[in-house]
Amino acid sequence: MAFDREETLDSRTGAALHLYSHRPVGEAEGIVLIFHGLAEHAGRYGRFAAELAARGFCVLAHDHRGHGSTVAPDAPFRRFAKGSGVDKVLMDCRAVHLHAVERFGALPVVVFGHSMGGLIALNYGERHGRDFAGLAVWNADFETGLEERVGRFALKAERALKGSDVASAIARRATFDAWGRTINPRRTMFDWLSHDPAAVDDYLADPLCGFSPTVSMMEDILTLIFQGGSAAGLSMLPPDLPVHLLGGTGDPVTRSGAAMRWLEGRLRQTGLDDVTLALVEGARHETLQETEAFRSQATASLLPWLDRVVSA
After folding, report:
1. What does 214-252 look like in DSSP terms, one character per residue?
2. CA angle, 100 as apex, 96 and 103 as ends, to 5°?
3. What does the DSSP assignment read for 113-124?
4. By the 8 A CB rule, do 164 and 216 touch?
5. pTM for the complete prediction?
6. pLDDT in tens, 232-274
7. Residue 83 burial class via C-beta count within 10 angstroms: exposed 0-12, middle 13-18, buried 19 and up
8. Which of 31, 38, 84 minimizes the C-alpha distance to 60?
């Protein structure tokens, strides 16, 4: 299912952001901004946007730098930017946010992020959380340890040897390849995304999906993880901001949902008390591309939460 409109928005970072939008037939209750994940694009969220629009929400999603149909002089495919990639990604999100309010009116705004989009959404909330009504972070891992610290040093070595604008072999082995091996038996190496064979096949057939990130993009993603999940970062969130967390117990990316439990604990320790955690038993990584049974469990948790936070 497709969005009902596509357009381009010029960001002050120099990026021409490709936007997708959907608006309700009747009176709007709020605005949902969708931040997509790594190695995909916002156009894949059309079905979800239609469900939200049917609920009374205006929906706006954009392709991040280095993804989809967004273009920027310093951000070829698979790279956020030549420098200051995280700052520029978040500035682009701000441009979309302000555009949404200008276009749809002064409605309550909820930011929704999946996977890498969840990393971006939490970091964005730490900068601008007072400007929206709720934050939803799905299928994202902010917990760091020895593996992540070693990964940072390994990426620096890879950059020194090969440069920053080449596909990172280290990132590929540590992410897509490692996650693919967790599913047994498996039909493809991307079965970790979903139980739905058609959804996996659509992903594999999409030339804008499944790419290996460059060394610089992977370094920026690690910055989002370390920065967003730090005590200093989390302390920047408004204490009264409602947060919705969701993961699947069949998702290797979040260690079967353990990463979402960890984030819930950290948010509560920080002082946020309106934190909702939903774990969908058996669901794999792309909850919104899962089979109907898994999707319906996820939306059954999210939609009443959305209604509550925008009415508040």
Report:
1. BHHHHHHHHHHHHHHTSHHHHTTS-TT--EEEEEETT-T
2. 135
3. EETHHHHHHHHH
4. yes
5. 0.97
6. 999 999 999 999 999 999 999 999 999 999 999 999 999 999 9
7. exposed
8. 31
Query: Interior CA angle at 42 toward 39 and 48, to 5°?
Result: 120
Q: Do the domain assignments include residue 113?
A: yes
The parent domain of residue 37 ranges over 5-145+222-311
Alpha-carbon torsion angle 103, 4, 24, 309, nearest 10? -70
**Six-digit token string for 219:** 């370094």
pLDDT (tens digit per residue) in 65-104: 999 999 999 999 999 999 999 999 999 999 999 999 999 9
Under 8 Å between Cβ of 288 and 298: yes
Give yes or no for a cis peptide into 213 (omega within 30° of 0).
Answer: no
Question: What phi, psi does 17 have (nearest 5°)?
Answer: -85, 130
SS3 content of the chain, % helix, strand, coil (to 5): 45, 15, 35
The whole-number pLDDT of residue 77 equals 93
Mean pLDDT, 10 residues at a time, over the chain (312 residues)?
92 98 93 98 98 97 98 94 96 98 96 98 98 98 87 88 90 94 97 98 98 94 96 97 98 98 98 97 98 97 97 90
Axis crossing angle, helix 116-128 with helix 215-228, rounded to the nearest 10? 50
Determine, yes or no, domain membership for 200. Answer: no
Query: What 3-state DSSP class applies to 288?
Result: helix
Asked if residue 64 belongs to a domain, the reply is yes
User: In this structure, what CATH number is given to the domain that contains residue 261?
Assistant: 3.40.50.1820
Both structure tokens of 204: 């594999």
* Domain contains 94: yes
* Residues whose CB is less than 8 angstroms from the CB of residue 256 and which lie 6 or more positions away in sequence, other chains included: 248, 249, 250
Measured in residues, the chain has a length of: 312
Structure tokens at 10: 């010029």
